[in-house]
Specification:
Length: 241
């Protein structure tokens, strides 16, 4: 986003503030709250060389909108990796989580992991985390995953394209979408300079029919596409030993 576009975004946000506040309150009151996906969050499956997988994140990592974990991100990723590896997997996720929450969870996690998938950012965008604080926390998370948990590859999921979410009315959708795009661009730049980190953004058309019934979370088909992108990126980056 250019400097001029960024200034325009901040000016529009200021002018529209009264409308945005009313719309945000309305969305919180009316959007249906869906449960996290049911099913095991830890286990082992597949055959071949062992691979220790951790998925850590927010409601999307927890599978909200999918119903069960086998149709959510965890199950979709594990199923693909298990075609060639014995996957020891663990999911640590909670609806509403921000990057700072994931950092706190690391204090309680035991064991090491070869491959880590993160799904964080949307709540940092919507709950007021500053951009620089978000970037510092993401960098710290990556560093700790490498240094303390032995991760050789971290796949950082990009910030979702909130500007295309049908649950949000205009102009709230546009404003939040612009903020998400700013976070996404900055995260992409930060990941490019981080050792062992690859950003996997959402670069496909978003079909509202493939989203969950709340209009805010992925449905099983989007989880499938997301998992395919992650596994393809892992294979493209380098083999995980």
């Amino acid at each position: 986003m250019s400097d001029g576009a960024l200034r325009g975004y901040h000016l529009a946000s200021l002018i529209l503030a009264p409308v945005l506040i009313r719309q945000a309150v309305y969305v919180r009151r009316t959007v249906r709250l869906l449960p996290e996906a049911e099913g095991p969050r830890e286990g082992q499956t597949g055959s071949g060389p062992p691979l220790r997988l951790l998925i850590i994140g927010d409601s999307s990592a927890a599978g909200v909108g999918a119903g069960t974990q086998d149709r959510a991100l965890l199950g979709q990723v594990v199923a693909r990796l298990a075609e060639e590896r014995t996957v020891h997997y663990r999911l640590i996720a909670r609806s509403g989580a921000r990057t700072r929450d994931a950092l706190r969870w690391l204090d309680e996690i035991e064991g090491a992991f070869d491959l880590v998938v993160t799904a964080l950012g949307i709540n940092d965008v919507t709950k007021g985390t500053g951009l620089q604080a978000f970037l510092r926390q993401q960098s710290r998370l990556w560093q700790r995953l490498r240094d303390e948990r032995g991760a050789s590859l971290i796949l950082a999921s990009g910030v979702p394209p909130v500007g295309r979410f049908p649950a949000l009315p205009q102009p709230l959708r546009w404003v939040v979408g612009q903020r998400a795009a700013i976070f996404e661009a900055a995260l992409c730049k930060r990941a490019a300079g981080a050792a062992g980190v690859a950003l996997v953004g959402f670069d496909q058309p978003l079909d509202p029919r493939e989203m969950s019934e709340d209009g805010f979370h992925p449905g099983p088909e989007i989880y499938r596409k997301w998992a395919e992108a992650l596994v393809a990126r892992a294979a493209l980056t380098r083999p995980v030993s």
